[in-house]
Specification:
alpha+beta, globular, transmembrane helix, Prot_kinase_dom, kinase, ATP-binding, glycoprotein
Length: 563
């Protein structure tokens, strides 16, 4: 049968893309560094690290590092994503690399794998803070299919331009601090070419070690890509790449260039004026592009843009067709169509979104108004946390703060926030626990009904948990579902609303518990309340004013239906 030219073209494209995908992966199993056996201590420790990565371990600025075990069975692991890769894609790349590496190196205690966008390695020796320049993979580029040669007439000039560009980026990346050692830039090369380059070290390296690693990597240019318009060298501790097209994310580049500067302060409201065509200030732009980049996660509603005119400020979000969660779980007809698998997916998605806000985003964000009405559902009923008008942004090492104005929704508010004006990531955990119990029960916390009586949902949940009748809390439409999983969610929800702030789970623990039924759960104690014996609940939290409002007016953003 004759094959049309169209099909020949498609088949050729598939062959090329397949070849490219293969070329983008390099792995090495070290056969001379010791072996382990299945189900040995080393194997279990390695599995623990790999599981922690897949179940939500912290990945800061695209960097993952972890150690687990003791003595010769201790496992050390490092994962690094390219600096312009977002958090979701980074975690996906590292998860895939870890899985592939474990399968392809089933007995070796040390192994390493390179993808185009991430690297993952593990060993039974300490590999943190140590520059390792070998083994090295290099070539024109992992992902470039055809690479042009530089004209001999311009080769010396091209090499000079390339060396100047790379050395400048090396200096910038090496001085990048402990969170990020990454730099990108471009310059004009001979023959009207624009030359783009990227350099990166693992951020655990001291400045001198990063500088030395990149310097040694540059020395591979004659072997890898002499006279070529593209090249790449990758080692365990550092890498660089250059191309004649912009292969990195320009938005990430702009943020990277400003990451050394503190966040611009909130902009004061403009003075009254008859001029309704006032131009937005640079500060407004700086704060809002920062927010747009920070709120990029599949379980956060996506900010598309903003409009500023005079005193008018509007945020433009993605269209989410299935409205908010409260329209589904609190409506008797609609809730019947929301089975346990759908509700469990929603619970886990909200947890992942909160974990990103608390741990993995560029700035730590405390939402302060998490509730069913502020969780939107997309076409596939995936949850997206929305309404950040009351949120506070903190730098990464700050987890708590105080305010002079209480905003939010009573019932979802943690008592230390409602009574003492203190908030923290554990305030969001409290709200999540309340929301989780609402999703399981299908009833609002403030109007929970048991027959003819109206009772507070948390006290009812605790009473039934204590008496061994937790199934009474479950929505009647779910009674045919997996009872053990639903009861486990009730227990996790109660652990999120504990009276002692320090006893509440953090979102990393919540995500881990939701993704593994084999993890033993602590026993909850009585949930928190706003008063105990007539006395406001006391906490041991320190006051901290370093968190800033994401909305300068601290008001909720009203959205028109459909949401």
């Amino acid at each position: 049968m004759a094959i049309s030219s169209r099909w020949l073209f498609l088949l050729s494209a598939i062959v090329i893309l397949t070849a490219q995908a293969v070329a983008q992966t390099h792995k090495l199993c070290f056969n001379d560094k010791g072996n382990y056996t299945s189900n040995s201590s080393y194997d279990k420790n390695l599995n623990h690290i790999l599981y922690s990565l897949t179940s939500g371990a912290r990945v800061n600025y695209g960097f993952f590092n972890s150690s687990y075990g003791n003595n010769s069975d201790e496992v050390h692991a490092i994962g690094l994503c390219r600096g312009d890769y977002n958090s979701d894609d980074c975690r996906s790349c590292l998860n895939n690399a870890a899985s592939v590496l474990k399968q392809n190196c089933p007995v070796q205690k040390e192994a390493i794998l390179w993808y185009d966008y991430c690297i993952f390695r593990y060993s039974n020796r300490s590999i943190f803070g140590v520059s390792e320049t070998g083994p090295t993979f290099f070539g024109p580029s992992f992902s470039t299919w055809i690479v042009n040669n530089v004209s001999a007439n311009y080769l010396d000039r091209f090499n000079d331009v390339l060396r100047t560009l790379l050395e400048g980026l090396r200096d910038e990346a090496a001085a990048g601090g402990s969170l990020r050692k990454y730099a990108v830039n471009n310059t004009i090369a001979p023959q009207n070419m624009t030359l783009y380059a990227l350099v990166q070290c693992t951020p655990d390296l001291p400045e001198r070690e990063c500088y030395s690693c990149l310097t040694e990597a540059f020395q591979n240019i004659p072997q890898c890509c002499s006279g070529k318009t593209a090249g790449r060298v990758v080692s365990p501790s550092c890498n660089f790449r250059f191309e004649t097209y912009q292969f990195y994310n320009p938005i990430a580049e702009a943020l990277q260039q400003s990451s050394s500067s503190p966040l611009a302060p909130p902009v004061s409201p403009p003075e009254s004026s008859d001029n309704t065509n006032s131009t937005p200030s640079a500060g407004n732009h700086a704060i809002l592009i920062t927010i747009k980049r920070t709120l990029q996660h599949r379980n956060l509603v996506r900010l598309l843009g903003f409009c500023l005119e005079g005193n008018e400020r509007l945020l433009v979000y993605e269209f989410v067709p299935n409205r908010s969660l409260d329209h589904h779980i609190f409506d008797p007809k609609k809730s019947a169509n929301l089975d346990w698998a759908s509700r469990y997916k929603i619970i886990k998605g909200i947890a992942r979104g909160l974990l990103y806000l608390h741990e993995d985003s560029r700035l730590r964000i405390i939402h302060r108004d998490l509730k069913a009405a502020n969780v939107l559902l997309d076409i596939e009923m995936n949850p997206k946390i929305s309404d950040f008008g009351m949120a506070r942004m903190c730098v990464l090492d700050q987890t708590e703060g105080n305010t002079n104005r209480i905003v939010g929704t009573y019932g979802y508010m943690a008592p230390e926030y409602a009574m003492l004006e203190q908030f923290s990531i554990k305030s969001d955990v409290f709200s999540f626990g309340v929301l989780m119990l609402e999703i399981v029960s299908g009833q609002k916390i403030t109007s929970f009904r048991e027959g003819e009586n109206i009772e507070y949902l948390l006290s009812y949940a605790w009473k039934n948990w204590r008496e061994g009748t937790a199934a009474n809390l479950i929505d009647l439409t779910l009674r045919s579902g997996p009872l053990s999983e639903m009861t486990r969610c009730i227990q996790i929800g109660l652990l999120c609303v504990q009276a002692n702030v320090a006893d509440r789970l953090d979102m990393a623990s919540v995500v881990l518990m939701l993704n593994s039924n084999s993890i033993a759960l602590p026993l909850p104690t009585q949930p928190t309340s706003f008063v105990q014996n007539g006395v406001p609940l006391a906490t041991s939290m320190k006051l901290d004013t370093a968190c800033r409002p994401m909305s300068q007016y601290e008001v909720s953003i009203t959205e028109l239906d459909p949401r």
